[in-house]
């Protein structure tokens, strides 16, 4: 789940004087029990960060005859857990938001009916983690990275950290806030980044040192970014005192887009040597009442039209090779050439153990 989107949605809602962003061709908190095989409504179940422009979803309706209803269900983990509880009798037709850190949980529970989406050959091969069975379709990527407050480091005449190892240096003591790996998607991604770079035999020692260097752990991204991080708009209002935070490589464009007036330079930067690559997937839910509509929606999610709509709506990167990024996204976002990754099968085998070990070392 790209929680940068949640911040963006909140910021835009405040700017417009409204309480929520619908913008999804139809958003509803009810299940799609009346959407049968002949229905003209297709229900997308997702985490709270799904967002798309009205124009793009209306284009889908015009092309296919299906109207999209979006059923949002909390963060990625909570949304996935609800689908596991209703397995075989799903609340919708397509699920969006299972990322590579949680994918094995979805697949092991048999949530999806295999479907090879049209246009899949245009999707980057390194995102197709279930290519042999096509139970899920890659939709976007994002990079979980440490962000820094540019003004703080300029005022202190201190270079910001660049790598995971830099975060252990005395110069950065008591400066970093991160999210709980047991309760937060970016927190889990950051933990996996340390496993990837420090090794399975070294990540625990790394976290002992990071704890000794004053890392602060909070429950979720919103608290970390908007209440504890001095570089964000929310953090400034809260008089936050942590100039380093675990967020996303796409967070700086958010700070620019929703500022009034817009600055010529983002107030925050990204330590690109601290990044973990997140890949989000969508899949046709097993037992979907509108299977034809679900397949059409999966095709559309990897269409160039939808892929080019995502960056400034969900602040994620397209997976389709020929999709173009908007100038604001490329100008202010960070390019991460070599993000840390962990093989999905290794995550599946070790995730719970890693989180438990991390919790005993850092939280308890």
Summarize this structure briefly:
This protein has 364 residues and is an alpha/beta fold. Helices cover 38% and strands 18% of the residues.
- Gross morphology: globular
Low-confidence stretches: 9-35
> N-to-C terminal Cα separation, in Å?
26 Å
Helical proportion, percent range: 25-40%
Percent strand equals 15-25%
Largest sheet geometry: 10 strands, mixed
Attribute tags:
single chain; 364 residues; alpha/beta; ten-stranded mixed β-sheet; 10 strands; 38% helix
Describe the protein's topology.
Elements: H1 4-16, E1 41-46, H2 54-64, E2 67-72, H3 76-85, E3 94-99, H4 103-108, E4 112-113, E5 137-149, H5 150-155, E6 176-179, H6 185-198, H7 203-212, E7 216-218, H8 221-228, H9 233-237, E8 244-248, H10 251-257, E9 268-285, H11 291-301, H12 304-309, H13 311-314, E10 317-318, H14 327-332, H15 344-363
Parallel strand pairs: 1-2, 1-3, 6-7, 6-8
Antiparallel strand pairs: 3-9, 4-9, 5-8, 5-9, 5-10
Helix pairs in contact: 7-15
Verbal overview:
The chain is an alpha/beta fold and 364 residues long. It contains 15 helices and ten strands. Strands 1, 2, 3, 4, 5, 6, 7, 8, 9 and 10 form a ten-stranded mixed beta sheet that branches. Helix 2 (54-64) links the parallel strand 1 and strand 2 (67-72). Helix 7 (203-212) packs parallel to helix 15. The longest helix has 20 residues, at 344-363. The radius of gyration is 20 Å and the shape is globular. 50% of the residues are buried. The model is unreliable at 9-35 (pLDDT under 50).
């Amino acid at each position: 789940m790209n929680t940068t989107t949640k911040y963006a949605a909140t910021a835009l809602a405040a700017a417009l004087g409204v309480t929520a962003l619908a913008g999804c061709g139809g958003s509803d908190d009810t299940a799609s029990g009346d959407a049968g095989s002949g229905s003209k409504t297709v229900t997308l179940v997702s985490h709270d960060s799904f967002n798309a422009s009205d124009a793009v979803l209306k284009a889908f309706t015009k092309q296919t005859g299906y109207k999209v209803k979006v059923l949002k269900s909390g963060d990625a983990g909570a949304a996935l857990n609800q689908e596991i509880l209703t397995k075989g009798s799903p609340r919708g037709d397509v699920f969006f938001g299972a990322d590579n850190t949680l994918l094995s949980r979805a697949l092991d529970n048999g949530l999806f009916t295999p479907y090879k989406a049209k246009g899949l050959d245009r999707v980057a091969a390194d995102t197709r983690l279930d290519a042999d069975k096509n139970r899920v379709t890659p939709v976007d990527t994002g990079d979980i990275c440490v962000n820094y407050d540019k003004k703080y480091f300029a005022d202190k005449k201190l270079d910001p950290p660049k790598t995971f190892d830099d975060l252990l240096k005395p110069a950065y003591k008591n400066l970093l806030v991160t999210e709980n790996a047991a309760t937060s998607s970016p927190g889990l991604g950051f933990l996996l980044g340390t496993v990837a770079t420090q090794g399975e035999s070294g990540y625990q020692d790394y976290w002992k040192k990071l704890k000794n260097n004053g890392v602060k752990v909070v429950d979720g991204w919103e608290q970390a970014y908007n209440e504890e991080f001095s570089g964000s708009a929310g953090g400034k209002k809260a008089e936050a005192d942590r100039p380093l935070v675990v967020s996303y490589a796409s967070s700086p464009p958010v700070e620019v887009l929703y500022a009034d007036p817009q600055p010529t330079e983002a107030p925050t930067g990204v330590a690109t040597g601290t990044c973990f690559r997140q890949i989000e997937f969508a899949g046709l839910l097993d037992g979907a009442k509108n299977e034809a509509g679900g397949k059409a929606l999966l095709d559309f999610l990897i269409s160039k039209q939808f892929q080019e709509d995502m960056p400034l709506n969900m602040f994620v990167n397209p997976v389709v090779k020929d999709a173009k990024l908007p100038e604001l996204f490329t100008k202010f976002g960070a390019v991460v050439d070599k993000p840390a990754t962990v093989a999905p099968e290794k995550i599946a085998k070790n995730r719970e153990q890693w989180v438990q070990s991390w919790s005993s070392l850092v939280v308890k």
